[in-house]
Automatic annotation (TrEMBL):
It comes from Candidatus Cryosericum odellii. Pfam families: ABC_tran. One of its GO terms (biological process) is phosphate ion transmembrane transport. Gene3D superfamilies: P-loop containing nucleotide triphosphate hydrolases. InterPro entries: ABC_transporter-like_ATP-bd (IPR003439), P-loop_NTPase (IPR027417), PstB-like (IPR005670). GO terms for cellular component: membrane. Keywords: ATP-binding, Nucleotide-binding, Phosphate transport, Transport. One of its GO terms (molecular function) is phosphate transmembrane transporter activity. This is ATP-binding cassette domain-containing protein.
Length: 171
């Protein structure tokens, strides 16, 4: 059997909130095109670990981390943060559509935030294809220009998934 291609690797990840260390030397190898589950009891650091992958952890005041995150062999600490987040997508437990954006704008938010300009035709294609992938197109095609927050909770969660996968992240 062929060895899987490793798209993301962590080496000895440690994380702190102030003086409290919450991750202790976490190393992992994430294969490409495979589902990887991170499981453990409440409070064990699963979310913190995932947040360290695209440096969201560092947005918390007093938080810091050490160790190495390799994205397709490149140390993410040497990469621009926008590039890191373009390649390592994240969907949170609670839906968080951007409140000032429509459904349509939420799907395309990653392109806007990274300064990528799309033709209207290309944008329309991405929105429809991505919303279809998450099973939301038929439910919201008549609501594309309404606030993303106007959708039901489950629809908002799928909208957030669509927003993440629209950028086709590696992880």
């Amino acid at each position: 059997m062929e060895e899987p291609v490793i798209v993301l690797e962590t080496q000895k990840i440690n994380a702190w909130f102030g003086k409290d260390q919450v991750l202790f030397g976490v190393s992992a190898r994430i294969p490409k095109n495979r589902v990887t589950a991170i499981m453990g009891p409440s409070g064990c650091g699963k979310t913190t670990f995932v947040r360290t992958l695209n440096r969201l952890h560092l947005m918390t005041p007093g938080a810091r981390s050490s160790g190495t995150v390799l994205l397709e062999g490149t140390d993410t600490s040497t990469m621009d943060i926008v590039d890191v987040r373009k390649h390592i997508g994240m969907v949170f437990q609670r839906p968080n559509p951007f409140p000032t954006m429509t459904v349509y704008e939420n799907v395309l938010a990653g392109y806007r935030l990274t300064g990528q300009h799309l033709s209207r035709e290309k944008a329309d294609q991405i929105v429809e294809a991505t919303l279809n992938k998450v099973g939301l197109w038929t439910e919201v095609q008549s609501k594309l220009f309404k606030a993303g927050t106007s959708l039901s909770g489950g629809q908002q969660q799928r909208l957030c998934i669509a927003r993440t996968i629209a950028m086709e992240p590696a992880v």
